[in-house]
Structure formats: C-alpha cells, structure tokens
Design a protein that fits this description.
heterodimer, A: alpha/beta, 9-stranded mixed β-sheet, B: about 130 residues, alpha/beta, 6-stranded mixed β-sheet, globular, binds iron/sulfur cluster
Amino acid sequence: MTKTITDVICPFCGTLCDDLEVVVSDDGKKLLEVYNACVIGTEKFLHSQSKDRVTRPRLHQPDGTWKEISYDEAAEYTAQMLAKAKKPLMYGWSSTNCEAQSVGNEIAEISRACCDNTAAVCHGTTLIAVQDIGLPTCTLGEVKNRADRIIFWGCNPAHAHPRHMSRYSIFPRGFFTGKGQMSRKMIVVDPRVTDTAKMADVHLQIEQGRDYELLNALRVALNNEWLPDSVAGIPKEKIREAAEMMKSGRFGIIFFGMGVTQSLSKNHNIDEAIALTVHLNEFTKYSIMPMRGHYNVTGSGEVFAWQFGFPYSIDLSRGFARYNPGDTSSIDLLVRGEIDAMFTIGSDPGAHFPISAVKPIANMPSVCIDPHQTPTSGVSKLHVPVSFNGVETGGNCYRMDNVPIDCRKVVEPPEGMLSDEQFLIKVRDRLKQLKGAA
Amino acid sequence: MAAINLNLISGRSIQQGVAIEGGKEKPAYRTAAGIIELDPSDLKRLGAWKNTNVKVTSPHGSVIVKAMETSQGPHPGIGFIPMGPWANSIVDPNTYSTGMPTFKGTPVTVEVAINEPVLLGIELVQKQCGVK
Ligand code: SF4
C-alpha cells in the first residue's frame, strides 16, 4: 500500500509551490511519485532517493580520497575550526529552514564570524536598494487576484521559476482577474528573446546593462516629456507604447531578477525600478517584487534581520554586528584573503562564486554541509551530508513575497542521518564548551 | 582560426536547474551548464559547427565549453553560459562595493578548441583550485 501526502511545499525555488502531492510507501521510507511539481522540483524530490547518496561525514585526505567519520567527530572538527579561526565566514543558509538558521546564528555570534547568505550572488543589491528607498510590494495572492499588468524585468521565470506564471502571475483566474491571461498584459524586458519573452505582449529587447536608462526613459514617457529616438536600443515609440500599457492597468506589478541585480549599476538599477513603481502609483496601483531564487533565501534574510539587524553580509568579528556590503560581503572578503576558515551550509559557493573567490576556500580549513556532492564539497576539507530540508525534515521557510510557510517532511532520511539543525546543535554545544561561553 | 568578441551573460536555465538537483558530479550537469549559447550569426562568424568545443577567454580566466545554437535568440553579440562553474571561471568578480560580482556583461573572446575536453563541474573547480 502507498500513502499520498497532499499540500506539500516544494523546496527548490522562491515560488514555494504548496500544492504538491507526494506518494510514499506505507512505512514512509520510500518516496515513489511526485505530482504537480515542475521538472526541477520533481527532480529534487526524486533524487533524494538516489542509491549513490553520501550518507556519512567524510574528511578529505591529502591523496584526494575521503575518509568516513562519525557525526560526532564531524561536529568536533567544525567546532575546533570555528574556535581557532580569527575571522571565519559562515555562508549559505538558503536551502535550509529558519530553525537551523537561528542555531547557526548563535554559532556565528560565539565564534565572531562573518555571516552571509546567497543574496550575495542574487538579490543582495536589491536589499541595498530597499534600505535606500523602500519597497512598495504585495503578496503573490494579490498578484493572482488583482494584477492585470505584469512586467518581468531581467528575469526568465519560464526557466528559473517554472510555475510562477501558472500559479500566480499570468495564467491563473483570480477574484478580479477571472479571464486569466486574457485579462492580463505582459511586458518582458530582456536582452535575449527568452522563453518568457516569447509569450509577452511587448518584449523590450534591451541592450545588456542599459536597465537604468530604460527605466528612466519609461518615467519620462509617463510624463509625456521629450525622449531621444532610442534609449537602450529601444525606439522611443515602443517605450511610449510600453509606458501607456503600464499605466492603463488597474493593478500592475514589476517582477525583477538577476538581469537587474547583476549588471553594472546594480543597486542603482533597482533604485530606479522602485522609483518607477512609485511614479506609476500616480496613475494607478503598482507593486514591485524581487524574484527570489533559492527557496529559503528570503527566510535567511529575515532571520539575520531579527537576530543581527541586517539581512546579509554581516560581520560579527568585533563582537557586534557590522554591515557594509563591499567590505563585509563574502566575495570581497574571500578575494581580499581576509577569511581564515570557511563554513558552508545549504548552498554551493564553489559552483556559484567567481573562481577567484573559490580558490581561497580550497586553501583554508573548510566544512561543507550539503546533502549533495558539489564543487564546494569537492574543495572542502570536511563534507557533512545531511537530510534534505523540505523532503526529509520540515520547518519554516519564506516565499519570495515574504510569506512564511511551514514545509513538510514527507519521507524518512536514510538511517542515521542528521538534519542541518541537529548537526548545528551539536556544533553549538561543543563550541560553547571550547569557548567557555554560557 | 577565427576568434570573435562577445558580451557574456550568465543565468539560469531549466536544464541547469534539473541538473543541479540530479547531481553535480554527473555528466548531465556538464551537458546542461558546460555550454555557451550563441546566436546563429555569431556561430557563422566563428566558423564553427554546432556542438563544437570552444575556448572562452575573458580578462578573468578561460574555460572550455561546448558552443550551441541558442534557442532563446536572436541575440547577436551576446554569449550565454548557464550559471555554474564554467561561467564562473571567466565572469568579472568585481563587486564595485556592493558585494555582488558582475555576472552579466563580461567581454569575452571565443575561439574553436575542437580537441580540448569540457571538464565535469566538480573536476573543473578542483583543478582550478589545485585540489586535484
Ligand atoms: S516552480 Fe519552483 S517551487 Fe514550484 S515546483 Fe517548480 S521549483 Fe518547485
């Protein structure tokens, strides 16, 4: 006999789809089928069952092989490493739950670490812009029920958030949007004709990196002021057409992604996008929302903010929280060689940081906590596999619109495996002994 | 042989998303992210067939990837490598005081490197870090 578990949360991307159905064996040990998830979410659930999974901590030996050790030995290694380091970096947190993040922050405080999450390579610049000028935003439920103008700026949900359009933004029939996509206009701004752009009513194929100029030109067009013949490679007529379409709606939303946050101008692009949103509110109702990628990166920012007052790039090395991106941010710290121990959890800087920020990790004491084998585990001294959050452990996580949701455990982890939180508690308790902290 | 100059961007693709969950040690990850998507006109300028290995060089490093004809084009002058260690071998790490590297908009040169292999993801990073 099998059991079907309903209302399961998908722990891959910030959309946090909450309508999955998972079929498990009667004893709850095997996950058999996944319904409703996109291909990425399905793969995440099914791959947790793979036979070649690493199930015990392993220490990297000088000859490149791995030696299996116990979780207690791994916790001892990690606590010793953090206790000895002058300026450790604790990075990641986006693929784990808020409970584990909170224990991690206690560890960071005791070891006076720098702490950062994957916003470092995703929406960090958004957080700077939000601190600068605020964020007129809403929930995805409001988008579903009210929004009739959808702008995707520098993001490609067809690839990065595959069910975003069907669940919230383009296709669903909401309370005031009963005709689904028939009642919505869709504008996409992207230098490529992405699979999202192909579906748009208007695609502005912007010259890469010219977001600030185009955002500014749209504001000029809203006021019917003079424009040059083309801005950012877009003819002025098309800019005016897009501006008209934007202000003629009843409720609009700008979703923006890495095209805006990772191009030059960075946080200034987002300042201008938020200013455009505010400006549009002179004509109709508008909101703006970052397309957060990792499933609980938003939660990590929240937990950091409750506990330290800042959402990422925090430096506790002086015994109190400092925040100064460019100075206290992971990539800068690593490239400048200021870090002497690396602790990674729930993310993969080895694959997703520029290589010059990865090289230092290979040359220092380093621990990587991750259910998968990754480039980070490949260059770390210790790899601690843990159970999959959202599949084999539950816990709290935040959707991209800052709505907290409890994810569900659907299947048992392999025998004897710990969760992130359980492992971190071991490290914390041992670190307290080593540091003589109460 | 011809070398062409392009503006490189990186980003997600759905294949990359599936591959990272399927295991980064597997060849499927290389198939999904060890590639550069080029506009057909740029492939022609390069004088390369589809699915040819190419060497992509920027001021920050170089990497071997497989050149593909893009399915999300036209985008002449732009090269797209899905996010992952191949793209990160050559992107601009400068954060200009924001903490965020400049993952989009790196000037690169692309040339045919037919006999050089595209490495597996973990292997590539280990090699560059001198771990293996
Ligand atoms: S869209 Fe995102 S949250 Fe939803 S099923 Fe796909 S990966 Fe999971």
